[in-house]
Amino acid sequence: MRHALLLAPLLAAACSAAPSSTGPTTVADPGSVLVVVDPPPAATTSVEVAAPAPSARGDLEWAIFGDTPTVAWAPDGVRLAIANQVNYLGAPAAGQAGIDVVHVETGKRTRVHEGPGYHPVWLGDDRMAFGCSTYECDDAGQGIYLLDLGKRARRALVHGAYHTRAGKDGGVIFFSGFPEYEGWMSWDLRSAKPKRISGPEDAWQAPAAQLADQCPSKVGERRVEQRDDQVFVVDAATRHAIVTTPPWYLAWPGNRGAIQPCLSPDGRFVVYFSQRGGASFVGVRQFDAP
């Protein structure tokens, strides 16, 4: 029944093996509000992954797992979080799903969270949040998780959470789909419950008034776009070709077209998404305006 409901265009989700549950645990969230949570998804350990050889400083590309890639830039503007995740039609094998952090100036890639979870959100230099819906973590594990780098992720909010994004108030905004179906919500990290905010009915379109976009398509007068196999940066009236590569088409739910590239907060780096030769890639190119 849930799978049939998820086919509605308002929902975006993924499905993978559910984390094991051994009973509830009481922990304190950042605002010292005690909440009862189940054990989080698989234990988090930092594992370094071999870095690709860059063709030039800041020009990197990584093969990633999954069909619903989501990324977010850290406040320092040189680290990028990448979620490796699938939608509910597939289930990852052990070691496939997880969240990586890559340093675009060194090429170092580190697995910071092992297991289900997507749409990472940076809350500071060494802290992030991510969502895990009932389709990824089952009813016993759904919610929003907090992750201090180098430590184990823990669930801090029990709720049906989809498409977690950074809020302008320093908290998290997300789409409440199954089982609550409440629309776009805001959580300040301290309250026991999120509050509903005005926003689009489409789960894929975050409310701009509350959103702090951590990989925007436009920074100042600079914007990035992909047309066919070409990724461009448009700076004032000048169009610069950045890379030529086939786009990554998001085919589920429905045909939502090509996943568009985005920029680092200072506009120096371009992130693009590509599928070719049966593999999926996230790439970064440094842009230096002439």
Automatic annotation (TrEMBL):
Q: Which UniProt keywords apply?
A: Signal
What is the annotated signal peptide range for this record?
A: 1-17
State the source organism's domain of life: Bacteria
Q: Write one Pfam family the protein is assigned to.
A: PD40
**Protein name as it appears in the record:** Biopolymer transporter Tol
